[in-house]
Structures are given as C-alpha cells and as structure tokens.
Amino acid sequence: MARIIHKTQLSEDVFRMRLEAPLIAKERRAGQFIILQVNDNFGERIPLTIANADKEEGSITIIFQRVGKTTKELAELEEEDEIPHLVGPLGLPTHIEKLGRVTVVGGGIGVAPSYPIAEAMKAAGNHLTVIMGARNKDLVIMEEEMSSIADELIVCTDDGSAGRKALVTEPLKELCESDTPPDMVIAIGPPIMMKFCAKTTEPYEVPTVVSLNTIMVDGTGMCGGCRVNVGGEVKFVCVDGPEFDGHQVDFDNMMNRLKSYQTQEKAKTCKLEKVGKTTNLANPRE
After folding, report:
1. Which helix (H) or strand (E) holds 263?
2. Are residues 126 and 229 in the same domain?
3. What average pLDDT does the segment 198-219 reach?
C-alpha cells in the first residue's frame, strides 16, 4: 500500500504523484519501473516508469497520462489517498557510464521516464544534450527540471508555440552531422518517434537506445503481451528490457501489436465515463 504524498497536474491530462514507498526509493535505479493497482480486489495492474526518487523522504515520483480506464481512476485519487498495490523496482536499469556526449530525446509523456536517465548520465560526467518534443506548449512538461541538468536543452513543438517548430528528429540530425556528434542517443516517447529517431541516427552509426515501456501489460513476463522482435529474436520488454538497441527493434511489428486491444480499451473507457456520472471513481463500488 502506498500513500499519495503530493499530487500536481502538469497539463490537461498529465499528472505527477509522489508516493510513499521507502523500499522502492532505496533500491530504484534509472530506467526501472513499478506496477500499481488502483483498486484493492479488482482492476488491471499497470506499469509506470519511476520518474524520480527521494531516499530520505522514502518516496518515488510517477508521472502518467490520463488515457484509459485505470489512469483515469488513478487521476481521481487525491493526496492522502492510498494505492492498495504497488511493487517494484522492476526491469533492467539503464547502463550508466561516462561516454562523452550523450543526447536524450523525450517525446510527450516520454520526457518523464527520460529524466532520471538524463540525470544519471550527467552525474556520470557526460556532456548532456536534451531534446524535448510535444504537440504544443501546453503539453511541454518538466522543462525546468531538464534545464537544470542539461548542458543544452532543445524544445520542439509541432505548432511552434514553444521552442522550435520542428520534430525532434530535426535537431537530432543536426547534432549527428555536427563536429561533435553524440556518442550515445537515448530516445523515449511514442513508438513512431522512437522509430524515426533510430532511423535518423543509424546512417551516422550513433548507438541508440530506446525504451519500449508503452507495450508492457502486467510487467512480469507472464502474460506475453510485451513480445517484441529485436534483431530477429523475440524479447519480452518487461524482463529483457525495457531498453533495447533502437537499430534492432522491429517497430512496425510493435506498433501493429499495440493496436490489438483498441476495441476493448474503448469499451472500458466508455463504460467508465458512464459509471463516473453516478459513482465515485476512486471507489467504484460505493
């Protein structure tokens, strides 16, 4: 059980929560995730990357987007409410070392899981460039946090309302073509963004790591829902990852598999919206 210490809303559908979880905070490393269940005896379990941790306070921070049934229920919880089930840290941590010049690319909500990795890479002595992308300025998150650790911060929006009017691949290509190209690129965000980040760096032979956490379901390797093809081999994101060589990932196969449960997801969301008119979403049985 984890108590919600603090909750803030970063944008219309993006929330940040600080949870009381001393054991997880003590053991967590960059790139790892937790699994939580909002309701005590029913409901799905969802994986969320640990965006930050405070060992002294005994807390971890999660940042999530309100998109489906469970995240909508989670967004209804308030400070001092409790999440009945929380386990972690899970997944293989990011390999952190001094490489020279590291570029971290975060797209949309992917900025949140990229932050602890960027922070750790900077602490290891790397020159850190961060590229952040969003559809518009209202969806840009964690700009202040990233600015505090990056040697160079580049913000891109689709409509030009904040930073550059560009996709993240545009400044990424410029960096690869510069006199000081990245020694490593880490890209986290929508699968289509990660796919094209990998395609951008591949001709320049810049090693590129991607995090495939968007396809995880139960996070334990038991359901098989997170199968991906990497270098011609089948991998399970939750136990073999969530990070892989972006030049080896079959993104087209992954994106097709992400559509598998769209019908069920829409049905659950519609049902929740109807139930929400007459019940307490934090306690649906009331």
Report:
1. helix 262-276
2. yes
3. 87
